[in-house]
Design a protein that fits this description.
The protein is of the alpha+beta class. It has five helices and 20 strands. Helix content is 16%, strand content 45%. The radius of gyration is 43 Å and the shape is elongated.
Protein backbone atom coordinates (compact mmCIF):
# COMPACT_ATOMS: atom_id res chain seq x y z
CA UNK A 1 0.00 0.00 0.00
CA UNK A 2 2.96 2.29 0.68
CA UNK A 3 4.06 1.68 -2.89
CA UNK A 4 0.55 2.57 -4.07
CA UNK A 5 0.72 5.88 -2.20
CA UNK A 6 4.16 6.52 -3.61
CA UNK A 7 2.87 5.87 -7.08
CA UNK A 8 -0.15 8.13 -6.64
CA UNK A 9 1.95 11.04 -5.34
CA UNK A 10 4.38 10.77 -8.22
CA UNK A 11 1.57 10.42 -10.72
CA UNK A 12 0.44 13.91 -9.73
CA UNK A 13 3.89 15.36 -9.08
CA UNK A 14 3.92 17.56 -12.20
CA UNK A 15 0.34 18.92 -11.78
CA UNK A 16 1.05 19.83 -8.14
CA UNK A 17 4.24 21.65 -9.07
CA UNK A 18 2.27 23.60 -11.63
CA UNK A 19 -0.19 24.63 -8.91
CA UNK A 20 2.70 25.90 -6.79
CA UNK A 21 4.15 27.93 -9.65
CA UNK A 22 0.77 29.41 -10.53
CA UNK A 23 0.22 30.45 -6.96
CA UNK A 24 3.64 32.10 -6.93
CA UNK A 25 3.30 33.98 -10.21
CA UNK A 26 -0.33 34.87 -9.52
CA UNK A 27 1.06 37.73 -7.39
CA UNK A 28 2.35 39.74 -10.48
CA UNK A 29 1.28 43.46 -10.88
CA UNK A 30 -2.32 44.04 -11.98
CA UNK A 31 -1.24 46.12 -14.98
CA UNK A 32 0.40 43.17 -16.45
CA UNK A 33 -2.71 41.09 -15.95
CA UNK A 34 -4.97 43.72 -17.55
CA UNK A 35 -3.08 43.77 -20.77
CA UNK A 36 -5.38 42.70 -23.60
CA UNK A 37 -2.68 40.36 -24.98
CA UNK A 38 -2.80 38.21 -21.77
CA UNK A 39 -6.55 37.50 -21.79
CA UNK A 40 -6.44 34.19 -23.70
CA UNK A 41 -3.66 32.85 -21.42
CA UNK A 42 -5.65 33.63 -18.30
CA UNK A 43 -8.65 31.73 -19.56
CA UNK A 44 -6.52 28.70 -20.30
CA UNK A 45 -4.92 28.89 -16.91
CA UNK A 46 -8.33 29.07 -15.24
CA UNK A 47 -9.43 25.96 -17.06
CA UNK A 48 -6.22 24.30 -16.05
CA UNK A 49 -6.84 25.24 -12.43
CA UNK A 50 -10.30 23.69 -12.55
CA UNK A 51 -8.84 20.54 -14.00
CA UNK A 52 -6.20 20.43 -11.24
CA UNK A 53 -8.83 20.85 -8.56
CA UNK A 54 -10.77 17.99 -10.04
CA UNK A 55 -7.70 15.78 -10.05
CA UNK A 56 -6.91 16.80 -6.48
CA UNK A 57 -10.39 15.75 -5.40
CA UNK A 58 -9.94 12.40 -7.13
CA UNK A 59 -6.62 12.00 -5.36
CA UNK A 60 -8.26 12.67 -1.98
CA UNK A 61 -10.96 10.12 -2.71
CA UNK A 62 -8.36 7.49 -3.59
CA UNK A 63 -6.41 8.25 -0.40
CA UNK A 64 -9.57 7.83 1.70
CA UNK A 65 -10.32 4.51 0.02
CA UNK A 66 -6.75 3.32 0.63
CA UNK A 67 -6.92 4.32 4.30
CA UNK A 68 -10.19 2.38 4.72
CA UNK A 69 -8.68 -0.77 3.17
CA UNK A 70 -5.43 -0.70 5.18
CA UNK A 71 -6.71 -2.27 8.51
CA UNK A 72 -8.24 -5.38 6.85
CA UNK A 73 -5.06 -5.93 4.86
CA UNK A 74 -2.91 -5.73 7.97
CA UNK A 75 -5.12 -8.27 9.78
CA UNK A 76 -4.91 -10.75 6.92
CA UNK A 77 -1.12 -10.62 7.06
CA UNK A 78 -0.71 -10.59 10.86
CA UNK A 79 2.04 -13.11 11.84
CA UNK A 80 -0.04 -14.93 14.50
CA UNK A 81 -3.16 -15.45 12.40
CA UNK A 82 -3.85 -18.79 10.70
CA UNK A 83 -4.78 -18.83 7.06
CA UNK A 84 -8.27 -20.09 6.27
CA UNK A 85 -8.36 -23.82 5.49
CA UNK A 86 -9.32 -23.16 1.91
CA UNK A 87 -6.25 -20.90 1.58
CA UNK A 88 -3.75 -23.59 2.65
CA UNK A 89 -1.62 -24.31 -0.42
CA UNK A 90 -1.61 -27.81 -1.85
CA UNK A 91 0.91 -29.50 -4.13
CA UNK A 92 1.65 -27.86 -7.40
CA UNK A 93 0.00 -29.20 -10.51
CA UNK A 94 3.33 -30.66 -11.62
CA UNK A 95 3.89 -32.52 -8.30
CA UNK A 96 0.33 -33.83 -8.19
CA UNK A 97 0.62 -35.06 -11.77
CA UNK A 98 3.92 -36.85 -11.04
CA UNK A 99 2.44 -38.52 -7.94
CA UNK A 100 -0.61 -39.71 -9.87
CA UNK A 101 1.54 -41.08 -12.67
CA UNK A 102 3.74 -42.94 -10.16
CA UNK A 103 0.64 -44.51 -8.58
CA UNK A 104 -0.74 -45.51 -11.97
CA UNK A 105 2.52 -47.30 -12.80
CA UNK A 106 2.74 -49.05 -9.41
CA UNK A 107 5.72 -47.01 -8.27
CA UNK A 108 6.24 -46.14 -4.60
CA UNK A 109 6.53 -42.48 -3.71
CA UNK A 110 8.83 -43.40 -0.79
CA UNK A 111 10.42 -46.70 0.26
CA UNK A 112 11.86 -47.42 3.69
CA UNK A 113 14.16 -50.29 4.61
CA UNK A 114 15.63 -51.15 8.00
CA UNK A 115 17.60 -53.92 9.67
CA UNK A 116 18.24 -54.34 13.37
CA UNK A 117 20.81 -56.58 15.07
CA UNK A 118 20.11 -57.24 18.73
CA UNK A 119 20.64 -59.63 21.60
CA UNK A 120 22.10 -59.93 25.06
CA UNK A 121 24.76 -61.75 27.03
CA UNK A 122 23.46 -63.30 30.26
CA UNK A 123 24.97 -65.14 33.20
CA UNK A 124 22.78 -67.30 35.44
CA UNK A 125 24.11 -68.55 38.75
CA UNK A 126 22.55 -69.77 41.96
CA UNK A 127 21.95 -72.46 44.52
CA UNK A 128 19.35 -75.23 44.46
CA UNK A 129 18.36 -76.37 47.97
CA UNK A 130 16.66 -79.47 46.58
CA UNK A 131 17.32 -81.78 43.63
CA UNK A 132 16.33 -81.67 39.98
CA UNK A 133 17.20 -83.42 36.73
CA UNK A 134 20.83 -82.28 36.11
CA UNK A 135 19.99 -81.33 32.51
CA UNK A 136 17.59 -78.72 33.89
CA UNK A 137 19.52 -77.52 36.94
CA UNK A 138 19.27 -73.86 35.89
CA UNK A 139 15.45 -73.96 35.57
CA UNK A 140 12.50 -74.53 37.88
CA UNK A 141 10.46 -77.15 36.02
CA UNK A 142 8.10 -79.23 38.20
CA UNK A 143 8.07 -82.03 35.59
CA UNK A 144 11.84 -82.41 36.09
CA UNK A 145 11.67 -82.74 39.89
CA UNK A 146 12.11 -86.22 41.40
CA UNK A 147 9.20 -88.66 41.00
CA UNK A 148 10.57 -90.75 43.89
CA UNK A 149 13.02 -90.17 46.70
CA UNK A 150 16.66 -89.95 45.63
CA UNK A 151 15.95 -90.07 41.89
CA UNK A 152 18.44 -87.26 41.18
CA UNK A 153 20.82 -87.74 44.08
CA UNK A 154 21.23 -85.69 47.25
CA UNK A 155 19.80 -82.22 47.80
CA UNK A 156 21.89 -79.10 47.40
CA UNK A 157 23.85 -77.96 44.35
CA UNK A 158 25.10 -74.82 42.67
CA UNK A 159 24.68 -73.94 39.00
CA UNK A 160 26.37 -71.58 36.55
CA UNK A 161 25.72 -70.94 32.87
CA UNK A 162 25.28 -68.53 29.97
CA UNK A 163 22.65 -70.53 28.10
CA UNK A 164 20.11 -67.69 27.98
CA UNK A 165 22.47 -65.61 25.81
CA UNK A 166 20.66 -64.58 22.62
CA UNK A 167 21.27 -63.13 19.17
CA UNK A 168 18.76 -61.95 16.59
CA UNK A 169 18.23 -60.02 13.36
CA UNK A 170 15.04 -58.23 12.33
CA UNK A 171 14.30 -56.48 9.05
CA UNK A 172 11.52 -54.35 7.64
CA UNK A 173 10.91 -53.32 4.02
CA UNK A 174 8.05 -51.33 2.49
CA UNK A 175 6.64 -52.95 -0.64
CA UNK A 176 3.66 -52.39 -2.91
CA UNK A 177 1.93 -55.30 -1.10
CA UNK A 178 2.57 -53.98 2.39
CA UNK A 179 5.35 -54.23 4.95
CA UNK A 180 7.75 -57.17 4.62
CA UNK A 181 9.06 -58.27 8.03
CA UNK A 182 11.57 -61.00 8.84
CA UNK A 183 13.15 -62.27 12.05
CA UNK A 184 15.94 -64.76 12.67
CA UNK A 185 16.78 -65.44 16.30
CA UNK A 186 18.62 -68.09 18.27
CA UNK A 187 19.94 -68.72 21.78
CA UNK A 188 22.32 -71.12 23.51
CA UNK A 189 19.82 -73.13 25.56
CA UNK A 190 19.95 -76.74 24.41
CA UNK A 191 16.78 -78.87 24.62
CA UNK A 192 15.68 -82.27 23.31
CA UNK A 193 18.72 -84.36 22.42
CA UNK A 194 20.85 -81.32 23.41
CA UNK A 195 19.24 -80.95 26.85
CA UNK A 196 21.69 -79.61 29.39
CA UNK A 197 24.14 -78.35 26.78
CA UNK A 198 25.22 -74.84 25.84
CA UNK A 199 24.53 -74.97 22.11
CA UNK A 200 22.73 -73.10 19.36
CA UNK A 201 18.95 -73.39 19.44
CA UNK A 202 16.62 -71.79 16.90
CA UNK A 203 13.91 -69.57 18.34
CA UNK A 204 12.44 -67.70 15.38
CA UNK A 205 12.79 -68.05 11.62
CA UNK A 206 9.87 -66.03 10.35
CA UNK A 207 8.76 -63.92 7.40
CA UNK A 208 5.60 -61.87 7.03
CA UNK A 209 4.24 -59.83 4.12
CA UNK A 210 1.13 -57.83 4.81
CA UNK A 211 -1.44 -60.15 6.36
CA UNK A 212 0.36 -63.44 5.61
CA UNK A 213 3.35 -65.05 7.29
CA UNK A 214 5.23 -68.36 7.32
CA UNK A 215 8.06 -69.95 9.29
CA UNK A 216 8.64 -70.63 12.97
CA UNK A 217 7.41 -68.25 15.66
CA UNK A 218 4.90 -68.00 18.53
CA UNK A 219 1.76 -70.08 18.11
CA UNK A 220 -1.40 -67.93 17.91
CA UNK A 221 -2.81 -70.22 20.62
CA UNK A 222 -0.33 -68.78 23.12
CA UNK A 223 0.12 -65.30 24.59
CA UNK A 224 3.75 -64.30 25.16
CA UNK A 225 2.66 -61.20 27.09
CA UNK A 226 1.64 -63.42 30.02
CA UNK A 227 5.34 -64.20 30.67
CA UNK A 228 6.43 -62.26 33.79
CA UNK A 229 9.55 -60.12 34.22
CA UNK A 230 11.59 -62.94 35.75
CA UNK A 231 15.14 -64.31 35.70
CA UNK A 232 14.23 -67.99 35.54
CA UNK A 233 14.41 -69.19 31.95
CA UNK A 234 11.58 -71.71 31.54
CA UNK A 235 8.78 -69.62 33.01
CA UNK A 236 5.32 -70.39 34.47
CA UNK A 237 4.40 -74.03 33.92
CA UNK A 238 0.68 -73.28 33.54
CA UNK A 239 0.92 -71.06 30.47
CA UNK A 240 0.63 -72.05 26.82
CA UNK A 241 4.11 -71.58 25.39
CA UNK A 242 5.14 -72.97 22.02
CA UNK A 243 7.17 -71.68 19.07
CA UNK A 244 5.93 -73.75 16.16
CA UNK A 245 6.32 -74.00 12.39
CA UNK A 246 3.20 -72.52 10.81
CA UNK A 247 1.46 -70.63 8.03
CA UNK A 248 -0.53 -67.72 9.43
CA UNK A 249 -3.14 -65.20 8.32
CA UNK A 250 -3.72 -61.99 10.30
CA UNK A 251 -6.82 -60.34 8.77
CA UNK A 252 -6.92 -57.72 11.55
CA UNK A 253 -3.60 -56.22 12.64
CA UNK A 254 -2.58 -53.83 15.39
CA UNK A 255 -3.01 -53.81 19.15
CA UNK A 256 -6.39 -55.45 18.63
CA UNK A 257 -5.92 -58.31 16.18
CA UNK A 258 -7.15 -61.61 14.81
CA UNK A 259 -4.84 -64.51 13.85
CA UNK A 260 -5.52 -67.88 12.24
CA UNK A 261 -2.81 -70.48 11.56
CA UNK A 262 -2.13 -73.99 10.35
CA UNK A 263 0.63 -75.44 12.54
CA UNK A 264 2.96 -78.40 12.39
CA UNK A 265 1.29 -81.26 14.33
CA UNK A 266 2.97 -83.30 17.05
CA UNK A 267 2.15 -85.11 20.27
CA UNK A 268 3.58 -87.45 22.90
CA UNK A 269 2.16 -90.48 24.74
CA UNK A 270 2.80 -92.45 27.90
CA UNK A 271 2.53 -96.24 27.96
CA UNK A 272 2.07 -96.13 31.72
CA UNK A 273 1.80 -99.53 33.37
CA UNK A 274 2.06 -101.13 29.90
CA UNK A 275 5.31 -99.49 28.83
CA UNK A 276 6.95 -102.93 28.62
CA UNK A 277 4.03 -104.43 26.69
CA UNK A 278 5.59 -105.77 23.48
CA UNK A 279 2.55 -104.85 21.40
CA UNK A 280 3.14 -101.18 22.19
CA UNK A 281 6.53 -101.29 20.47
CA UNK A 282 4.72 -101.48 17.13
CA UNK A 283 2.71 -98.31 17.59
CA UNK A 284 3.60 -95.47 15.18
CA UNK A 285 2.20 -91.92 15.36
CA UNK A 286 0.29 -90.55 12.39
CA UNK A 287 -0.41 -86.90 11.64
CA UNK A 288 -2.43 -86.38 8.48
CA UNK A 289 -3.65 -82.91 9.25
CA UNK A 290 -2.06 -79.74 10.60
CA UNK A 291 -3.24 -78.21 13.84
CA UNK A 292 -5.72 -75.36 13.44
CA UNK A 293 -5.19 -72.49 15.88
CA UNK A 294 -6.03 -68.85 16.31
CA UNK A 295 -6.92 -66.04 18.65
CA UNK A 296 -8.85 -62.80 18.97
CA UNK A 297 -7.35 -59.94 20.99
CA UNK A 298 -9.22 -56.80 22.07
CA UNK A 299 -6.98 -54.03 23.40
CA UNK A 300 -8.02 -51.05 25.49
CA UNK A 301 -6.29 -48.35 27.56
CA UNK A 302 -6.42 -50.57 30.66
CA UNK A 303 -4.80 -53.53 28.87
CA UNK A 304 -6.30 -56.29 26.76
CA UNK A 305 -8.11 -59.61 26.76
CA UNK A 306 -7.28 -62.45 24.39
CA UNK A 307 -9.11 -65.69 23.66
CA UNK A 308 -7.18 -68.39 21.82
CA UNK A 309 -8.36 -71.75 20.54
CA UNK A 310 -6.90 -74.87 18.97
CA UNK A 311 -8.27 -77.97 17.26
CA UNK A 312 -6.11 -80.97 16.39
CA UNK A 313 -6.24 -84.65 15.50
CA UNK A 314 -3.81 -87.12 17.02
CA UNK A 315 -3.65 -90.64 15.56
CA UNK A 316 -1.54 -93.76 16.10
CA UNK A 317 -1.35 -96.95 14.07
CA UNK A 318 -0.61 -100.51 15.19
CA UNK A 319 1.83 -101.68 12.52
CA UNK A 320 2.14 -105.28 13.78
CA UNK A 321 -1.23 -106.54 12.61
CA UNK A 322 -1.09 -109.43 15.07
CA UNK A 323 -3.66 -110.51 17.63
CA UNK A 324 -4.12 -107.00 19.00
CA UNK A 325 -5.32 -103.85 17.34
CA UNK A 326 -4.14 -100.89 19.34
CA UNK A 327 -4.68 -98.23 16.67
CA UNK A 328 -6.67 -95.17 17.63
CA UNK A 329 -7.35 -91.47 17.24
CA UNK A 330 -8.05 -88.58 19.58
CA UNK A 331 -9.38 -85.08 19.00
CA UNK A 332 -7.45 -82.46 20.86
CA UNK A 333 -8.87 -79.06 21.63
CA UNK A 334 -8.23 -76.14 23.95
CA UNK A 335 -9.37 -72.67 24.99
CA UNK A 336 -6.82 -70.21 26.32
CA UNK A 337 -8.05 -66.95 27.89
CA UNK A 338 -5.37 -64.42 28.84
CA UNK A 339 -5.06 -60.78 29.80
CA UNK A 340 -2.80 -57.97 30.92
CA UNK A 341 -4.41 -55.48 33.29
CA UNK A 342 -2.68 -52.17 34.03
CA UNK A 343 -3.78 -51.29 37.56
CA UNK A 344 -1.44 -48.29 37.58
CA UNK A 345 1.40 -47.09 35.37
CA UNK A 346 3.75 -49.14 37.58
CA UNK A 347 1.64 -52.29 38.10
CA UNK A 348 0.67 -54.85 35.47
CA UNK A 349 -1.14 -58.11 36.17
CA UNK A 350 -0.42 -61.01 33.80
CA UNK A 351 -3.18 -63.61 33.86
CA UNK A 352 -4.27 -66.69 31.94
CA UNK A 353 -6.45 -69.77 32.26
CA UNK A 354 -6.27 -72.62 29.76
CA UNK A 355 -8.25 -75.85 29.57
CA UNK A 356 -8.38 -78.58 26.97
CA UNK A 357 -7.58 -82.15 26.00
CA UNK A 358 -4.45 -83.45 24.29
CA UNK A 359 -2.82 -80.00 24.21
CA UNK A 360 0.06 -80.74 26.61
CA UNK A 361 2.41 -80.39 23.64
CA UNK A 362 1.56 -76.66 23.63
CA UNK A 363 1.92 -76.20 27.39
CA UNK A 364 5.10 -74.73 28.89
CA UNK A 365 5.67 -77.64 31.25
CA UNK A 366 3.35 -80.64 30.90
CA UNK A 367 4.44 -84.19 29.99
CA UNK A 368 2.19 -86.09 27.54
CA UNK A 369 -0.93 -85.60 25.42
CA UNK A 370 -2.14 -89.22 25.29
CA UNK A 371 -2.44 -91.61 28.22
CA UNK A 372 -3.25 -95.31 28.48
CA UNK A 373 -6.65 -96.45 29.69
CA UNK A 374 -7.68 -99.97 30.64
CA UNK A 375 -10.21 -101.56 28.30
CA UNK A 376 -10.60 -105.14 29.59
CA UNK A 377 -13.97 -105.72 27.92
CA UNK A 378 -12.34 -105.76 24.48
CA UNK A 379 -9.85 -108.62 23.99
CA UNK A 380 -8.60 -107.19 20.68
CA UNK A 381 -7.97 -103.77 22.19
CA UNK A 382 -7.40 -104.43 25.92
CA UNK A 383 -5.92 -100.95 26.31
CA UNK A 384 -6.53 -97.77 24.41
CA UNK A 385 -5.11 -94.30 24.18
CA UNK A 386 -7.15 -91.38 25.45
CA UNK A 387 -6.58 -87.60 25.36
CA UNK A 388 -5.58 -86.23 28.77
CA UNK A 389 -7.48 -83.19 30.09
CA UNK A 390 -5.26 -80.39 31.38
CA UNK A 391 -5.87 -77.16 33.30
CA UNK A 392 -3.30 -74.37 33.46
CA UNK A 393 -3.36 -71.17 35.52
CA UNK A 394 -1.02 -68.14 35.58
CA UNK A 395 -1.26 -65.14 37.93
CA UNK A 396 1.64 -62.67 38.17
CA UNK A 397 2.15 -59.03 39.08
CA UNK A 398 4.99 -56.94 37.66
CA UNK A 399 5.79 -53.79 39.65
CA UNK A 400 8.19 -50.93 38.93
CA UNK A 401 9.45 -49.35 42.14
CA UNK A 402 11.14 -46.58 40.17
CA UNK A 403 13.30 -46.21 37.06
CA UNK A 404 16.06 -48.38 38.56
CA UNK A 405 14.24 -51.14 40.45
CA UNK A 406 11.46 -53.57 39.55
CA UNK A 407 9.93 -56.75 40.95
CA UNK A 408 7.73 -59.63 39.90
CA UNK A 409 5.72 -61.98 42.09
CA UNK A 410 3.26 -64.69 41.17
CA UNK A 411 2.07 -68.28 40.96
CA UNK A 412 1.30 -70.86 38.28
CA UNK A 413 -0.19 -74.34 38.29
CA UNK A 414 -0.82 -77.33 36.01
CA UNK A 415 -3.30 -80.10 36.77
CA UNK A 416 -3.68 -83.21 34.60
CA UNK A 417 -6.54 -85.72 34.82
CA UNK A 418 -4.54 -88.94 34.48
CA UNK A 419 -6.01 -92.04 32.86
CA UNK A 420 -6.33 -95.23 34.91
CA UNK A 421 -3.64 -97.09 32.98
CA UNK A 422 -0.91 -94.64 33.91
CA UNK A 423 1.74 -95.43 36.50
CA UNK A 424 1.23 -94.48 40.13
CA UNK A 425 4.21 -92.08 40.00
CA UNK A 426 3.02 -90.37 36.81
CA UNK A 427 3.05 -86.58 36.85
CA UNK A 428 -0.29 -85.27 38.05
CA UNK A 429 0.13 -81.73 39.31
CA UNK A 430 2.81 -79.03 39.30
CA UNK A 431 3.16 -75.74 41.17
CA UNK A 432 5.48 -72.85 40.34
CA UNK A 433 6.09 -69.54 42.13
CA UNK A 434 8.74 -66.84 42.33
CA UNK A 435 9.53 -63.34 43.51
CA UNK A 436 12.49 -61.13 42.68
CA UNK A 437 14.17 -57.76 42.91
CA UNK A 438 15.84 -56.49 39.75
CA UNK A 439 18.19 -53.52 39.39
CA UNK A 440 18.74 -51.56 36.17
CA UNK A 441 21.76 -49.26 36.62
CA UNK A 442 21.30 -48.26 32.99
CA UNK A 443 18.59 -49.16 30.50
CA UNK A 444 20.66 -51.90 28.83
CA UNK A 445 21.72 -53.72 32.01
CA UNK A 446 19.69 -55.93 34.36
CA UNK A 447 20.96 -57.63 37.49
CA UNK A 448 19.23 -59.06 40.49
CA UNK A 449 18.18 -61.97 42.65
CA UNK A 450 15.18 -64.26 42.55
CA UNK A 451 13.63 -66.81 44.91
CA UNK A 452 11.89 -69.72 43.17
CA UNK A 453 9.60 -72.53 44.32
CA UNK A 454 8.54 -75.70 42.53
CA UNK A 455 6.35 -78.61 43.61
CA UNK A 456 5.58 -81.93 41.97
CA UNK A 457 2.61 -84.16 42.92
CA UNK A 458 2.37 -87.74 41.67
CA UNK A 459 -0.74 -89.50 40.37
CA UNK A 460 -1.48 -92.26 42.89
CA UNK A 461 1.43 -93.14 45.16
CA UNK A 462 1.11 -90.06 47.36
CA UNK A 463 4.67 -88.86 46.67
CA UNK A 464 5.28 -85.13 46.26
CA UNK A 465 8.41 -83.05 46.22
CA UNK A 466 9.10 -79.39 47.05
CA UNK A 467 12.06 -77.53 45.61
CA UNK A 468 13.54 -74.14 46.60
CA UNK A 469 16.09 -72.17 44.62
CA UNK A 470 17.97 -68.86 44.63
CA UNK A 471 19.12 -67.41 41.32
CA UNK A 472 21.36 -64.42 40.57
CA UNK A 473 21.66 -63.16 37.00
CA UNK A 474 23.44 -60.45 35.02
CA UNK A 475 22.13 -59.44 31.61
CA UNK A 476 23.67 -56.99 29.13
CA UNK A 477 21.49 -55.96 26.17
CA UNK A 478 22.67 -54.49 22.89
CA UNK A 479 21.18 -53.51 19.54
CA UNK A 480 22.27 -51.74 16.38
CA UNK A 481 19.94 -50.64 13.62
CA UNK A 482 20.37 -49.31 10.08
CA UNK A 483 17.89 -47.54 7.80
CA UNK A 484 18.13 -46.66 4.14
Amino acid sequence: MILNHFYLSHRHLIPLSVVFLLALFGRVPASAQEQPSQTPDLQQMQKRMEQLEKEMQELKNEMKAAAAAAPSTAKANAPNEELPKEAVPGPSVEVATETRQAEEHGEEAKQSNSINFYGFAMLDSGYNFGAINPNWSDTERPTQLPSYAGEFGPNGSTFWGVRQTRFGVKSSTDTSLGELKTIFEFELFGTGVDAGQTTFRLRHAWGELGQFGAGQTWSPFMDIDVFPNSLEYWGPNGMVFFRNVQVRWTPIQGNSNVMIALERPGASADGGNYSDFIALQNIAPQFKWPDLSGHVRIARDWGYIQVGAILRKVAWVDTAGAEFNLSGTAIGWGINTSSNIKFTKNDTARLSVVYGKAIENYMNDAPVDIGVQNNPSNPVSPIKGVPLPVLGVVSFLDHNWNEKFSSSIGYSMVNIDNSNGMAANAYHQGHYALTNLLYHPVKQVTMGGEFQFGRRVNFLDGFNYNDYKLQFSFRYDWSKGFEW
